[in-house]
Each structure stands twice: as structure tokens, then as C-alpha cells.
């Protein structure tokens, strides 16, 4: 595998200039705030043509274009959205009453049948959305406004699960065979009008939104993976809202234009347990012991992150009660074994983290090579287990507001995002117990037990918990500061 070097500063500056000259919509100059459009710069381009069955669903959610049956409040508890109410009729069955007088962007009515169609498409997708890992559900649309959702096993977290943007409810026009196209098919405050590949998207205000009238006329989205270019767009006034400002660029932006939010996001080194050097538990423990997380926080993140004590971070205060490793493996002594670490450029800090890890692991006795690409070009190889290790910034409660979905997806034997290729019966049992636990203290304790089981394997070395740095112009107000990365542009977001 090749070692892709980072671009020098001069090349980055030139790339930024090119991006700035061609990617951003011009300001209309309107003095009426109701007629002004928001110029939004996002970090990662669509990976799956904005299909809600992929991670692209979170873009639709952050644009207030697509909606789900359920939302989550600040504590992670379920609250009504497209479902006005719900009842659990037995351990495996829930009845959801659909909100009345809601229309899709194409003018068709939101009905129980439409809800069933969207949920069935997600349940039968291959691969399934992460939120449905290990879950089998069936739906029945009663005449009128009731949808019954039945799971194969008791699932106390089903309402929270249905809050995942990957289970957005779309109009019939969105579904053609196995393809899902969300253009003009949502129910949200903004209508997705067009998508220009991986470059841009255009949304207009939904004048008939059931939740009220948005204050902004629309959203012009540009996808700019280069962090220098995103920060430059903010400084130059060519962007009103920037999704993620790299730490390295934050000092160049006036502090009053930045918002810093602790995220339920962990920067983790996933170690391949199925093949190669790190199939040896002792060498995994050696890698864990060699990593100085404090230096990563100070050096790469300039103090704008928190050193990790476990997989779950300060965005989940109850996780501070963690039990930690209950059966740590003694580190072996490396003797020059060669390992390849993969990561991606879309998050500007990750290549720097990988370079720092290279030095730390080489100091411990490993020989380390790096493979750094854009995420779209490296994800397939990472999921196929082609790296000895992979550096990933991973949201731990992205889907249901509950860490169990993340634990199963990333560390369960059948998990769809199991970069470590981990197959450990103790981990699977702990995750299953957490899944079955009732919401509240019982579930939180089970989650911490599952976290300990994962840490005991050294399949993943949590390094730090990120804080997102969100940038906005002086004229912008009302942007959401959402640690779950589900909301960004809302009804209240507008230019003064």
C-alpha cells in the first residue's frame, strides 16, 4: 500500500483559492431577511447520491429536508415528530399514530401506507441502515393513521431507533427499485430541489410546511472537503454557515464567529483483530500502551478536544462513571513488525493524528506505513479489513441517541461497521444485555459493561473526544448547535 503524503501549505492555499472561486453561490444582496438564502458549506460530499439509507441521511436531516416519526430531546428521550403519539401494546409491538395534515414536498399526503413503505424499504435494504443492525422489524398499516411496528425480539428503544435520519419517511416517488432519490420527496421545512453530484445542492423554503414557515428563503449547499477552503470561505464572507472549521484554521477566524460544542464523537484507532500483526492480543496491547493521547490533544487539536478515558466521552456525562478495562492484556514487546495505518483527508486533523501515531508506534518498536486518501476512496478497503489499523472519527450516539447501536455496529460480530473485524463472544453477550435493558439507569450500566468488554479486547484504542467547531457569519442567527449532528439549519436559522 502506498504512503500518500499531505499537500504542502502552498498547494493547499492554491486549492483553497480555486474552490473559493467556483463553489459558492453569490450573495443576492437582498435586504429582506425573509428573501435571503443561506450559503452553507459542508465537509463531506454525498457518498450515496443522498440516499437516506446511507450516512447521507444526516445531511437531509441537517438541512431540515427529511423527517422521521420520532425526534430526540436534549436528554435523548423520544418526542413526537411525524408520529403524533405511540403506544407499546406488548414487548414486541408498538402502534404509532401518524400526524394529520402533513404533505410531502410533491403534494401527496403523509399516510400510514407511506410510512410503511419507507420503513419496509429500510428494513429490506442490503446492507441495512446501521440503526437496524441486529433488528428485524415488520410493519402493518391500518386503515387510517396507525402504523404497527413489530420486532422479532423485545426492543425497548424502538421509538429512539425510529428517530434515526436513516429511517426518514419519504414520498412514493422517492422509491424506484432499490434506488431511493430524496429530491422533492421529504416533508421538512426545506425542499430539496436539485443535487449537483458531489459539488452542491439547492433547497427552497417549503411554503406549506406543517411545522410553520422557515425564516430563510432557501439553502445553497457547497461540499468542500478541504478544511482550509472552508475556513477561507468563512473569513472572506463567501459562506454564511460552515459545518466544520478545522482546529488548525480556528485561530484565523474571529472567535465570536465560532461555536465549540463537545461531541459524542471519539477519535479511535481500530486494530484489525482478524489478520496481520494485531491478530496478536499482546501486540494490540502494546499499541494501546504506546499511544500518548495527551500529546495528540495538545499537538494536533491545540487543546480543543478531550483525552479519552473510554469509548464514550463528556457529551454523555453519565459515561464518566465508566468501569474501564476489567481484564487488561499485558503488552508484548514489538520487534519491528510492519503495520499499515489507514485514514482519510476529509477530516483535516486525521492525517496529522495518523502521522503522530506513526511516530509513537515506531518509538515503541513497530514499523509503520500510512495510507491516506479521501474517505470515498478508502471506506471500501477499510470495511474489507485491508489495513492493520484505521484512524476514524466516529459518532457514538449518532443514530438512536443511545450508544448501543454504535457498539453493535462497530464491535458486534455481525456489525456492519466492524473495522476491527472483532468476533468476541464476551463482547456479543455484553452488547445483547445492553440492547435488552430498559432505558434509564439499568441501560446505562449495561452500556458501560459492554464498553468494558470491548476495551478488554484492545480491538479499539479510544484516543480523544472531539469538539466540533462551527463557523457562521456575523449576519447569521439561529443555527442549531447539535452534538448529535442531526440539526443545523432550522425554521429559525436566517440572515439578519
From TrEMBL:
Gene3D superfamilies: Dipeptide-binding Protein, Domain 3 (3.10.105.10), Periplasmic binding protein-like II (3.40.190.10). Keywords: Signal. It comes from the Bacteria. Residues 1-25 form the signal peptide. Coiled coil: none annotated. Residues 79-416 form the Solute-binding protein family domain. It holds the Pfam family SBP_bac_5. InterPro entries: Peptide/Ni-bd (IPR030678), SBP_5 (IPR039424), SBP_5_dom (IPR000914). PROSITE patterns: PROKAR_LIPOPROTEIN (PS51257). This is ABC transporter substrate-binding protein.
Amino acid at each position: 500500500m502506498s504512503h500518500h503524503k499531505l499537500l504542502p501549505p502552498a498547494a493547499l492555499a492554491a486549492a483553497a483559492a480555486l474552490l473559493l472561486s467556483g463553489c459558492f453561490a453569490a450573495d443576492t444582496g437582498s435586504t429582506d431577511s425573509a428573501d435571503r438564502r443561506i450559503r452553507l458549506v459542508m465537509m463531506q460530499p454525498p457518498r450515496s447520491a443522498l440516499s437516506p439509507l446511507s450516512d447521507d441521511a444526516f445531511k437531509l436531516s441537517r438541512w431540515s429536508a427529511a423527517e422521521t416519526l420520532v425526534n430526540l430531546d436534549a436528554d435523548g428521550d423520544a418526542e413526537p415528530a411525524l408520529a403524533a403519539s405511540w403506544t407499546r401494546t406488548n414487548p414486541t409491538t408498538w402502534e404509532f399514530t401518524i400526524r394529520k395534515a402533513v404533505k410531502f414536498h410533491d403534494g401527496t399526503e403523509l399516510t400510514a401506507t407511506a410510512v410503511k413503505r419507507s420503513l419496509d424499504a429500510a428494513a429490506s435494504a442490503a446492507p441495512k441502515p446501521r440503526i437496524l443492525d441486529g433488528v428485524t422489524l415488520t410493519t402493518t398499516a391500518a386503515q387510517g393513521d396507525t402504523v404497527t411496528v413489530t420486532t422479532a425480539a423485545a426492543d425497548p428503544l424502538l421509538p429512539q431507533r425510529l428517530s434515526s435520519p436513516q429511517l426518514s419517511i419519504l414520498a412514493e416517488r422517492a422509491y424506484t427499485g432499490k434506488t431511493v432519490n430524496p429530491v422533492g420527496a421529504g416533508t421538512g421545512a426545506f425542499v430539496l430541489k436539485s443535487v449537483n453530484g458531489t459539488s452542491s445542492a439547492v433547497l427552497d423554503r417549503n411554503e406549506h410546511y406543517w411545522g410553520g414557515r422557515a425564516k430563510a428563503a432557501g439553502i445553497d449547499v457547497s461540499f468542500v472537503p478541504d478544511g482550509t477552503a472552508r475556513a477561507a470561505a468563512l473569513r472572506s464572507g463567501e459562506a454564511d454557515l460552515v459545518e466544520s472549521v478545522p482546529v488548525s484554521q480556528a485561530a484565523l477566524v474571529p472567535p465570536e464567529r465560532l461555536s465549540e460544542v463537545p461531541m459524542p464523537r471519539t477519535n479511535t484507532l481500530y486494530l484489525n483483530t482478524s489478520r496481520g500483526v494485531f491478530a496478536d492480543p499482546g501486540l494490540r496491547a502494546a499499541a494501546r500502551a504506546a499511544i500518548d493521547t495527551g500529546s495528540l490533544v495538545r499537538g494536533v487539536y491545540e487543546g480543543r478536544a478531550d483525552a479519552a478515558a473510554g469509548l464514550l466521552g463528556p457529551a454523555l456525562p453519565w459515561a464518566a462513571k465508566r468501569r474501564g478495562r476489567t481484564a487488561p492484556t499485558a503488552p508484548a514487546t514489538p520487534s519491528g513488525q510492519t503495520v499499515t495505518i489507514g485514514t482519510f483527508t476529509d477530516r483535516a486533523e486525521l492525517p496529522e493524528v495518523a502521522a503522530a501515531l506513526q511516530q509513537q508506534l515506531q518509538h515503541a518498536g513497530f514499523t509503520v506505513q500510512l495510507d491516506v486518501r479521501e474517505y470515498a476512496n478508502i471506506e471500501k478497503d477499510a470495511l474489507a479489513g485491508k489495513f492493520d489499523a484505521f484512524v476514524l472519527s466516529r459518532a457514538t450516539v449518532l443514530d438512536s441517541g443511545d450508544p448501543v447501536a454504535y457498539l453493535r455496529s462497530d464491535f458486534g460480530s455481525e456489525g456492519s461497521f466492524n473495522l476491527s473485524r472483532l468476533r468476541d463472544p464476551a463482547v456479543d453477550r455484553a452488547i445483547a444485555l445492553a440492547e435488552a435493558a430498559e432505558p434509564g439507569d439499568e441501560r446505562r450500566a449495561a452500556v458501560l459493561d459492554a464498553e468494558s468488554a470491548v476495551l478488554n479486547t484492545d480491538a479499539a484504542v479510544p484516543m480523544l473526544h472531539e469538539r466540533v467547531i462551527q463557523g457562521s457569519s456575523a449576519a447569521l442567527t439561529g443555527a442549531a448547535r447539535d452534538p448529535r449532528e442531526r440539526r443545523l439549519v432550522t425554521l429559525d436559522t436566517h440572515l439578519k
